[in-house]
Design brief:
Oligomer: single chain
CATH architecture of the largest domain: 4-Layer Sandwich
Shape: globular
Radius of gyration: 23 Å
CATH superfamily of the largest domain: Metallo-dependent phosphatases
Number of domains: 2
């Protein structure tokens, strides 16, 4: 019998240290902690599923300065990573920035649907020969929704093609050459794994199709930040770890005499200990980040209390109003659109930089667009899908929680008056849509301030793709919020939001 072991992480999003930057207490999380648990030998592969960048205050701080000395390559090299694929956020700072990072990485990259302008693969499939002689094929791919979300300048020199045909072609080519094939897909599942029920038709995630129609031995997934324990679906073993290196997988594969593999996996939690050498190499960076995060911004008369997402979606709060206000000030827009996020919104009385980043965790930039009344109604109908009725009570639509929690796709439309009637069918819930007290007509044209993710249609707000872009300001909304609070010393703003949710 021959054996193979795989350690798998995905969607680390810059969380290297044992902290979520919200608490001062060490937590069982972070890539530096995970790699200390890796027991690697010549029959072990260490793999990452992409989105190593963007998301943590640590990595955002250095990336916003375009600094490559961000510690990520050092940590991954110390962890002995063999192969990685790319995630959608790995393109956020441009292809040159990504290439510089990859040049410092010992691991090989496979992302078979990332091509140059001539159509040649930039990151082909890999074959690894283990110490026991087993040949392992590794085929990576990134969700092609990068084309929708990403700033066109950041991917101007490359092509990102549809996932399924790219992985299918590589699998057919590679399978006769190897004993075992691992798919590494930065994407998730569009269907329920237990029932096959279709959950999304966007094309953002095609993991179930890969399981159903192709014959990978293992399909490693990511992107959705879901925790999916190892299981066999349509004859392929698949799994997905949560984000922020809060968990990682240890996968054991035993090959019997006929080379038929037996696969098991264990989802493990990192400890809080780090390599002393690695910690010493990076602690100056962490100190620099914490100094920035702990910078005082403003003292408030009262804290902004936390609310459940369901309550917040029906009321909004002062943090969201501030976000809307700074967007409007920067653009002069008629309407300012802001979103919830998956974190609980809360501000203490003594507000520091880290508090703003907790409440607005994305380094999104600000767009100004022109939209018609009809487009606004269509987008509001999408927002209204967030709600459902359960025994006559308003609840969050389960489709917004499974397979991926998507509170961040619920929008508030500051400057509009509107009613969302949850008793009505999806697509027919918007009532009493007004601007400055007057009904909004389908042909009316209004200017809208919103973040870049939404502006390109992120969250299935596809109507924005047809709207006119007036300006990409290049300003990050986080910076606008911090600057406003530092300048004014107050949170309260005169920002109108007149809406209600009824059943």
């Amino acid at each position: 019998m021959k054996k193979m072991k795989i350690y798998y992480t995905s969607d680390v999003h810059g969380y290297l240290y044992p902290t979520d930057y919200l608490s001062n207490e060490a937590q069982g999380m972070g890539l530096m902690q995970a790699i200390t648990d890796f027991d690697k030998d010549e029959n072990t592969l260490v793999i990452d599923g992409g989105d190593i960048f963007q998301g943590s205050p640590f990595i955002n701080y250095f990336q916003n300065q375009k600094r490559s000395d961000n510690g990520i390559a050092k940590v991954m090299n110390a962890g002995g990573y063999d192969v990685i694929t790319l995630g959608n956020h790995d393109f956020n700072y441009g292809f040159d920035f990504l290439k510089e990072y990859l040049s410092n990485l010992d691991a090989q990259v496979t992302a078979v649907n990332v091509l140059d302008k001539s159509g040649a693969q930039l990151f082909p499939a890999q074959i690894k020969t283990l110490g026991n002689g087993l040949k392992i094929g590794l085929i990576g791919a990134v969700t092609d929704y990068v084309n929708i979300w990403e700033n066109p300048e950041n991917i101007a020199d490359i092509q990102i093609t549809p996932v399924f045909p790219a992985m299918k072609a590589e699998l057919e080519r590679l399978k006769p050459q190897v004993d075992f094939v691992v798919g590494i897909y930065h994407g998730g599942f569009e269907s329920d794994l237990a029932t096959g029920e279709r959950l999304s038709d966007t094309g953002e995630n095609v993991g179930y199709q890969l399981l159903e129609e192709l014959d990978f031995d293992i399909l490693l997934t990511g992107h959705q930040h879901a925790t999916i324990e190892g299981q066999s679906v349509h004859g392929t073993y698949t799994l997905q770890p949560p984000n922020m290196a809060r968990k990682y997988f240890e996968i054991a594969v035993n090959f019997y005499d006929n080379l038929q593999p037996s696969i098991t996996s264990e989802l493990k939690t990192p400890g809080i200990n780090q390599s002393p050498d690695l910690k010493a190499a990076l602690d100056d960076l962490q100190t620099e980040v914490n100094r920035y995060l702990d910078r005082p911004i403003v003292h408030l008369d009262t804290e902004v209390a936390a609310q459940s997402h369901l309550d917040l979606a029906q009321t909004s709060n002062a943090i969201l109003a501030l976000t809307a206000h700074v967007q409007r000030l920067a653009t002069g827009a008629d309407i300012s659109i802001v979103s919830m996020n998956n974190n609980t919104l809360y501000l203490p009385q003594d507000v520091k930089v880290r508090d703003i980043l907790r409440n607005y965790p994305y380094d999104n930039t600000l767009f100004l667009m022109k939209v018609t009344g009809q487009q606004l109604k269509q987008n509001l109908e999408k927002t209204a899908e967030y709600f459902a009725l359960d025994a006559g009570e308003i609840v969050i639509n389960p489709k917004w929680l499974v397979p991926k929690t998507e509170h961040y796709n619920y929008d508030f439309y500051y400057g509009l008056g509107y009613t969302l009637d949850v008793s009505q069918p999806v697509g027919s819930r918007v009532r009493e849509l007004t601007y400055q007290g007057q009904p909004v007509q389908d042909t009316d044209v209004l200017s809208v301030a919103l973040n870049n993710y939404r502006a390109v249609g992120g969250g299935e707000y596809n109507v924005y793709k047809a709207a006119e872009v007036v300006q990409d300001t290049g300003l990050t909304i986080q910076d606008l919020m911090i600057a406003y609070l530092e300048k004014t010393g107050q949170l309260q703003v005169d920002e109108q939001l007149k809406f209600k949710v009824i059943d």
